[in-house]
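B., you asked whether I could sanity-check this one before it goes into the benchmark set. Here's the sequence:
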Amino acid sequence: MNKDTISKMVFFILALSSISALALITGFIFIQGLPLFFKVGFANIVFGTKWAPSQGSFGIFPMIVGSVCVTLGATLLGVPIGVCCSIFLVEYCPASLSNLFRPAIQLLAGIPSVVYGFWGLLFIVPFIRNNLGGPGLSMLAGSMILGIMILPTIISISEVSLKDLPRQYKEGALALGMTHWQAIYSVLLPAARSGITAAIVLGIGRAIGETMAVIMVLGNAVALPESILDPIRTLTTNIGIEMGYATGDHQQALFATGIVLFVIIMILNSFAQYIARRK
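And here's what the prediction gave me:
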């Protein structure tokens, strides 16, 4: 058996182990969570509005709404800043500054989420409470924290998408009499649309799956929000808060929550892969 065959087998085993780990995790979550769907009913869990496991109520609809709202808020805050920052790095930033900015942006991805949450608890929450009203622990605070946390993903992927475009696109646009900004807006951004869209979708997946940072700043109230200053609870924070002491149907309900979250994230990641592969 030659070295090429051995190397091929080793890489195949490593790839198979990764797929096997994903399959085991998926199987475990579904085995633990599906029985409650059959026992209580899919509609009662997904569309129920009362979460009281001790009373037999397992409605997670307020948490689904909370996850969607805080993720949407993070997207509205993070996407424009991230895309504009990637345009600046590619088209306007001098090389000396870009060599400084890129490591700083990558460093944002390496900061532990609990540090973001602690910073938000000390600065963002009091700012909202003192200037906008409410308890401070709110959907707005969570959206601001997540908006910052998704910046490295959006900036990095969008920057690569813009840098990989053929030079002829920009040169042709300038030769036709467009200004620099017109060339960026009318030619480069549409050409890099697939990569930028994939960056946005992956950023959304990062936001909707975050737990520790948002536990600290959301307030974790199980109720449908009426404004951005209301405290909310997301699917991830619900699991993180209650898994330590849950038993029986309560524990199965948390695994059922994980199934819903797993399906949402898989749909987002599949959509991102589809967008990234489009020509």
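One thing to flag: The beta strands are 51-52, 57-58. Otherwise nothing jumped out at me.
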